[in-house]
Design brief:
- By secondary structure, this protein is mainly beta.
- The chain has 2 domains: about 100 residues, no CATH class; about 270 residues, no CATH class.
- It is about 10% helix and about 35% strand.
- Strand 26 and strand 27 form a beta hairpin.
């Protein structure tokens, strides 16, 4: 038997059909040949409440039922979309029985009568057709988030006397919406009506790098309080006038999680003034084409209203290239709430331009605001999400 001194061993296990990654903790001795498909049994909950044995561990859309899942010999299983972790594995003769339930976002998607793809899009290419709905790990809410991509046809929502487009079902089952106008607009439509507030400076202050913040304070890299950006002030004024002052509407609004990612690109150093540098989103979205729903805790705002992030724009089918087909295009310039870079004299934030291109501009520039809100997970709807029969929030 091979002696293993490391506390954590990562190996790939072929489980009948699929390949998963297992992290095994507190293991002094391990005979890899004895770790095979006979050691794991996987069960997935069905709609009737029963569990059916499966050939593979599910990829996304499920959570491990920690109460039902057990391992012998005192080992403890945990799981996320990145793989399975078995702690306190002290014997080779350990068997695990894993039970998986649909997560809340998956249930919400089914409630809306929709299904998702099991693949991952190519984010280096713009989406000019209806590519459907995709799942991705939700780093802010936990679980899986489901997002619409391309010329979406099932994400129209009527709420508060306005039309909205669903961006995604958040990991907690709440539904994230972006303002689309007083009426619903077909994809590719050039219309000023889908801007709620026009000609807004993101911030009047520009000559410190931290003025990319949704809020900012002194010369600190980040804060969740401090002075509100001009965009925040203008956006919340619109919200209070159109939704917040109506108890029927406001009761449907969840405290959403909004990311204002102020991390800097790897290899760069942050400073309030001085030499130029890129924020992390610059390389992630312009070069790597690797959008994410993860965000540092110090950059996550809990708000009733915010703006779309540049990552969400790329998930939706945009990138640093013209795209007049995807559902976030409206022929107008509008702000995101994602920092882009500091050019040495001015703070720069991502925007979407009049050609649907995800690019950026100095914070003193004036562009539109498209409010983003989140509806509680228990909100119910009629309709099927199409432009002719949009999801209508019941009771609002």
């Amino acid at each position: 038997m091979k002696k293993v001194n490391k506390k954590i061993i990562v190996l790939s296990l072929i489980l009948l059909v699929g390949i998963i990654t297992i992290s095994i903790n507190n293991k002094k001795e391990l005979n890899i040949k004895e770790v095979d498909s006979k050691k794991l049994a996987v069960y997935i909950k069905q709609e009737d409440g029963s569990y059916k044995e499966a050939n593979t561990i599910p990829s996304i859309g499920y959570t491990l039922n920690n109460e039902k899942s057990t391992c012998s010999n005192g080992a403890k299983p945990t799981w996320n979309n990145n793989g399975l972790n078995i702690a306190n594995l002290t014997s080779n003769n350990t068997n695990c029985y894993l039970y998986f339930d649909s997560d809340i976002a998956t249930k919400k998607l089914k409630e809306l009568g929709l299904t998702s793809n099991t693949t991952t899009p190519n984010f280096s290419k713009v989406a000019t057709t209806d590519e459907g709905i995709f799942g991705v790990e939700d780093g802010m809410y936990g679980g899986t988030s489901y997002y619409w991509r391309g010329t979406a046809t099932t994400n129209y929502v009527k709420f508060a006397g306005k039309c909205w487009r669903a961006i995604r079902v958040n990991g907690d089952g709440s539904l994230r919406l972006i303002y689309d106008g007083t009426t619903c607009h077909a994809n590719g439509t050039n219309t000023p009506d889908s801007i709620a507030v026009t000609s807004v400076q993101y911030n009047a202050s520009y000559n410190q790098s931290n003025y990319v913040g949704w809020t900012y304070e002194g010369t600190s890299q980040r804060t969740l309080s401090g002075t509100a950006s001009n965009a925040k002030v203008q956006l919340e004024s619109w919200y209070n006038s159109n939704i917040g002052n109506n108890t029927t509407y406001s009761s449907k609004i969840a405290d959403g999680k909004y990311c204002n990612d102020r991390n800097v690109q790897s290899g760069s150093n942050w400073a309030a003034i001085g030499n130029s540098f890129n924020y992390a989103g610059y390389k992630r979205l312009y070069t790597d084409y690797a959008p994410t729903l993860s965000c540092s805790n110090g950059d996550i705002y809990s708000l009733k209203v915010g703006l779309v992030t540049a990552d969400e724009v790329e998930f939706a089918g945009g990138k640093n290239e013209n795209n007049t087909s995807y559902y976030l295009y409206n022929g107008q310039y509008y702000w995101t709430m994602s920092p882009s870079w500091w050019n040495g004299s001015g703070a720069i934030v991502f925007r979407v331009d009049s050609s649907g291109n995800l690019d950026d501009a100095g914070v003193r520039s004036t562009f539109g605001l498209r409010p983003v809100i989140n509806l509680h997970s228990d909100v119910t709807f009629t309709g099927n999400g199409t432009i002719d029969n949009p999801f209508v929030v019941e009771g609002a």
